[in-house]
Amino acid sequence: MQRQMLKLGEIELELHESGEGAPLLFLHSGAGFSPDDAFVGPLAAHRRLIAPSHPGFGYSSLPDWFDSIDDVAHVYLELLDRLGLPRVTLVGASIGGWIAAEMATKAPERFDKIALIGPVGVKTGGPKQLDIPDIFAHSTEALDRMRFHDPAKAKIDLSKLSEEQMRVIARNNETLALLIWEPYMHNPKLKHRLHRLTMPVLFMRGASDGLVSADYLERYAKLVPGARIATIAEAGHLPHIEQPKAFAAALDAFLGPIPGQGA
C-alpha cells in the first residue's frame, strides 16, 4: 500500500492507496486506519482502494476551525475532485459511515453504491434517550465488550508501542471527541436529507455490536429509500476488523461483479 501526504486547502491529508480497478473510497472508524488490517487485502484485490486518515487522525493535520463531521465530508468531496474521480463506491465504518452519509446527501451523483458499517450520525430515539452509549462514560474494559464479540481481540500491549504510535492513538481519541460530542454522535439535520440517497445502500452490523443496536440500525436504514441490511455473525462494532473474510464476502455480494471481470 502506498502512502502520501496530499495538500487540500489548509489540510495536509494522509492518504493510503492500493490495488487497481474501479475506485473504492474507505472511511475509517474512530480507531483510525491501518494498512496492516486484514480486510485491506480483499478490498484492494480487484479495486483501487483509497483510504484517507480523517483530519486530526493518523498524520492528517487539523486546522483550528475544523470541528464537525460535516467539515470532513466537504474535505473528502474535494479529495475526489483532486483525484479526478467523478464517481466511486463508498464504504464507511462507524463515524466513517456518518461521513459517508453526509457526503452522499451533498453529492449523490458521485456514488454508485454505498456500504455503511455500524454507522452513527442520526437521532432516531426519544429526546431523553441516547441512541449510542456514551463512550466517554465507560471504562476501557466495558468499551471493549461493546465493540468486540471477543473482547480479547481488542487488547493492545501498550508496552510494545512506540511513543509515536501512542501519540497517534491519543490524537485519534482527542479528535474523535471534538467531532462527535455536541450534539452527541449525530447531526440533527442529516435524517431529513437521507432521502437523497437513491443509489443502492447497504447497512452492515456485527451481531454483537454493543454500540449500534439492531433497532437503531433498522430505524436508520428506513430513512434511506430501498436500503438493505446485512448482519455479520461473531462480530461487534467493527466486523471488518473482527471478521474480515465474512465482511469482504458480504460486501462483494452487495457490490456485485468486478467491472470488466464478468459475473
Question: How would you describe the overall organization of this protein?
Answer:
With 263 residues, this protein is an alpha/beta fold. It has a single domain, classed as Rossmann fold (3-Layer(aba) Sandwich), CATH 3.40.50. The chain contains eight helices and eight strands, in the order βββαβαβαβααβαβαα. An eight-stranded mixed sheet has the order 1-2-4-3-5-6-7-8, sandwiched between helices. The two termini are 27 Å apart.
Summarize it:
With 263 residues, the protein is an alpha/beta fold. It contains eight helices and eight strands; from the N terminus they run E-E-E-H-E-H-E-H-E-H-H-E-H-E-H-H. An eight-stranded mixed beta sheet has the order 1-2-4-3-5-6-7-8, with helices on both faces.
